[in-house]
Structures are given as C-alpha cells and as structure tokens.
Amino acid sequence: MTRSVSPKGREFLYAHEGVVKKAYRCPAGIWTIGAGLTTASGVITVKPGMVITEAENDRLVDLALKRNYLPRVLKALGDSCSQHALDAGTSFDYNTGKIHSASWVKSFLSNDPIDTRRRLLMWNKGNGKVMPGLTRRRAEEATLLLDGRFPAEIERSVTGIQTPVDSRIGSHAAIVISLTTAEIEEAKKALVKLGYNAGAPTGAIDRVAVEMFQKAHDLTVDGKVGMATLATLQRELDARSKAAQGSVATAGGAGVAGGDQVAGAVTGPAPVDPSAVAPDQIATAIGLGVAAVAILYLAWQAYRYRDVIAARIADKAPRVATFLRSF
Questions:
Q1: Which helix (H) or strand (E) holds 195?
Q2: Which residue, of 145, 170, 268, 314, is most buried by count of CB atoms within 10 Å of its CB?
Q3: Per-residue pLDDT at 269 exceeds 80
C-alpha cells in the first residue's frame, strides 16, 4: 500500500509553510510559491508574477511529497512507522531536507524518546541563529512524533484542509499561518520600524498597514499575514541591516585612508629612508582597498535586494521597479 501524509498531517504542514498563490521571494531571495515550493523542488519552475490556484498547489505538493520526501522519510523511519511518525518526519524533511542525516532518527529507532526529543529540538537555527518559529515547529513535530498529538487547532479540525486563520476581521489583519502572540508582536514591531502604522491590541496587526506594505512590495493585497508578507518583511529588515554594514565599512575605509594620510603628512624635508613613509603608503592602500570592497559589497547587496529597492522607487520610477522585479 502506498503511504502518504494524513489530512491532518497536510494541514500541519500548511500551517507552518503557508499557501501563497502568487510567487514571492523567501528571505534568502529564492522565488517561492504555494506551500514553500521552489524550482529546486523539481515539480515547478517558479517565475516572477506566477500565480497558482489552491488546487494546483495541492497537486504540486502531492507530487513533491511523492518524488522527494516520502521515499526519504520512509527509508529513514521504516515502511512500518506509525502515521503520526510519518506526518512528523515529512514535516521535518520538507523543512530541512535532512532526515537522512538527522541524529534524532537513530535515537527514535532505538526507542529513546528523551534523546529523540532533545536532538530534534536542536534543529531550530537559521544562519546560525535560533529562530522562534523553528523552535515551536520542532517542539510540535516532537510531540506529534512521540505522543501522536497534533497542535490543538488541528486536533479540533473535522473536515477539509484549512490553514489556521485568525478570526479577527475589520481593522485587524488575518493571520493565515500558525504564529504565537509573541511572533505576531515581532511582525508588528518590524512594520512599525519600516514606517507603517501597524499599532493594534496585543496579538493583532492593523490591516491597513499590512495592505500598504503588501501593495508597496507587489504582493497580493489582502490584509492577510502569511509567509509571503513575513518573508518580504524579513528581506526589508535584512536589506537595511546589510546597507548599514556596508555604509560603516565604506566610512571606515575612507577614514583609514584619509586619517593615515593626515597623520603621516610630511611637514619637513622628505626622509631619506623609504621605510619611514612605507607604513603610510600601506595604510593608504589598505584604506582604499577597504573602501573599494565596501562599494562592491553595497553593489552586490543592491542586486541581491533589488526587489526591496523596487518597492522604494515604484512611485517615482514604475518602469524601473517593474524591471527589477522581473528577474
């Protein structure tokens, strides 16, 4: 019999991955669509402006699971693993692609639940930094794997495959993926930092602010906070951080060059020993080199975050913005 994820297992996956109908860039800048599908999935070539339906997303996810994930999960956990284990393992591998090398698998197969949970919870970092969302996802996967229990909102579901949606309407944005109150507050703070009036009661975000952000970044303007909005928000923050780093490096490089030239300026007869001016010449060269590297760094970051630049110039240079979003 062909094994597959259960309906609740799929709902669990969608709750964390989200289902986005219009292509967007993930925080790393990779074009993504549907439930976290990229060109690397082998089931779709994601292009700027691409739009798919929910039914097409389900079909593509099924294909990706069949081709890429389920064989690997069943090989790692065994063909006779429980449905809960299969659902948990598939969520983990869909997110990491590393179930074949994850140390928690050996502990699980050795029937050591304590060590299994401990090792599974270690997979909570992105770029070396602990990510709250991954910490929560790993904890939920561990509970599903070891105790056979889904999160409460999924356990309560009876029919259909629905992504958890915040019930707030009207002036508050809908939250269409699984987020804690703390995570919602972080998203709200990020919007405020970027100049959007996202103020709302704890655990809520102003809908108009979300729609304004979505419009500026060529996202689907629906007032819903999902993976596309959060990923784009993260890219905005990352772009500002990288730009600040480059500016500091450029200023630092210029300072080294100019400062050392002033400090080493010859006010009297030139020294006979060339070594007397060599340190100043070296410092100048280093300073200019640092500045050149910093300029190249900023140019690379501008290319990498061209979608962010497009959002900032769309009103004044719409054609340029459209071009920057086309690749």
A1: none
A2: 145
A3: no
Q: So what's the pLDDT on residue 37? A: 95
276 or 83: which leads in pLDDT:
83
Q: Are strands 125-126 and 129-130 parallel, antiparallel or unpaired?
A: antiparallel
Count of domains forming the chain: 3
- CB atoms closer than 10 angstroms to residue 167: 8
Segment 258-275 mean pLDDT:
35
CA distance 6 to 169: 30
Query: Based on the domain organization, do 100 and 197 belong to the same domain?
Result: no
Residue bearing tokens 């779709």? 44
Residues 216 and 309 in one domain: no
| Beta pairing, strands 174-175 & 224-225 | parallel
pTM (predicted TM-score)? 0.70
Is the confidence at residue 137, as pLDDT, over 70? yes
Same domain assignment for residues 180 and 150: no
Tell me the residue range of the domain where 219 lies.
174-225
The percent of the chain in helix, strand and coil, each rounded to the nearest 5, is 60, 5, 35
| 240 and 290 co-located in one domain | yes
Are 187 and 231 within 8 A, CB to CB? no
Kindly report the CA angle at 150 between 121 and 155, in degrees rounded to 5?
Answer: 160
Same domain as 294, residue 271: yes
Nearest to 69 by CA among 33, 102, 94: 94
Residue 193 domain-assigned? yes
**Res 9 pLDDT > 90:** yes
